[in-house]
Amino acid sequence: MKIMVVGGGGREHAIIKKLKESPKTEKIYALPGNGGISKDAECVNIGAKDIEAITKFAVDNKIDFAVVAPDDPLVMGAVDSLHKEGIKCFGPEAKAAIIEGSKVFSKNLMKKYNIPTAEYEVFSNPDDALSYLKEASYPTVIKADGLALGKGVIICPDYKTAEEAINSIMNDKIFGDSGNNIVIEEFLTGPEVSVLCFTDGKTIVPMVSSMDHKRALDNDEGLNTGGMGTIAPNPCYTEEVAKECMEKIFIPTINAMNKENRTFKGCLYFGLMLTDKGPKVIEYNCRFGDPETQVVLPLLKSDLLEIMLAVEEERLSEINVEFSKGAACCVVMASNGYPQKYDTGFEVIEEELDDNAFIYHAGTKMQDGKIVTSGGRVLGVCATADNLENAIKDAYKAVGKVHFQNSYTRTDIGKKALNILNNK
Ligand code: AMP
Ligand code: GLY
Q: What domains does the chain contain, in order, with CATH numbers?
């Protein structure tokens, strides 16, 4: 089959490498891909948000199957556009991608269908929000309704920071129209777990659980980032918790979307917090997580293309989805200064790695035959092993064999998870 993957980060690199393992795969195009992806797929210089050009490329090149990975094109209707041309896709149509595209939608959905989440109020007028915030208890959480590059959530310790957040989101419009409406919600505490699920709208199959590390610096300090590293499986996600999530969250969510006439097909990502009152949904994403995918897919034993085709053809219940019993760790090598200002254009040198270690490229490009840095998060350096401790050790060993100027990594990816495992 001729496959097209829309996107160009570490997540897409992990998807492409897995799709390449399928005997059905003949050729993969990446739109736009990146420097590292160009070794595994043919990169085409079309941006992930250029839906018209993506659709035209798919038609002109007789693409058999399209995987739309990032949130923006999904929310903007890339899958709808490809479906109109008769092209099979993995990913939700816009009417279902709204589960990530609008926090007001997802909060109202959870309230209507009794899916556990933080208490909340919705505001479209800054003055109403401010008078509510004068009486609120702190810390409190303010969320822009729409997509905001993962930066639309502000945790406010007091009224002053909340007032600043309202001004920047609703008056200064730092997230554009995404800030026309906001959600103010209860601050929850507890360990966080990411669970990515395959679903065709009838059956839902959770993948191995994972843990992201969102802050820029060790010990969860510094600014929020797109994710500085991940581990899988997440030791907090016991069989008991998994069962409770399936009954109270996963199945109710796909049923709710069906009832709303918004059947979700693709990868549904549950961002969960395990509170002392049980698991609650922090966020839904309509796609694979980044960098969660970089630790989840290496543990997938089954054929990813077969699973994706089954999702599109609504026969997921017939497919065996199997994960290996081991563990995986991904350490992000970033450009020093990320998530703020950083320099790019430095050559990336990779020494030979051990067999269980591998690298997914996120922010690199090919320049004069060399791979150079081109983004904030540059590489996801990963390893799989029989247990978490070895996966972490081997991922960091691999980090020592990859070099570029101004590189920055956290040194404690997986440390919290290991402590939890050792104290069990
Ligand atoms: P999100 O962009 O929705 O993933 O939120 C970013 C991060 O903010 C989450 O991973 C949580 O750590 C935190 N967060 C979001 N909502 C809440 C909440 N209601 N209570 C506590 N922390 C939250
Ligand atoms: N790693 C979080 C996300 O993909 O949204």
A: 2-93 (3.40.50.20), 125-180 (3.30.1490.20), 192-318 (3.30.470.20), 327-422 (3.90.600.10)
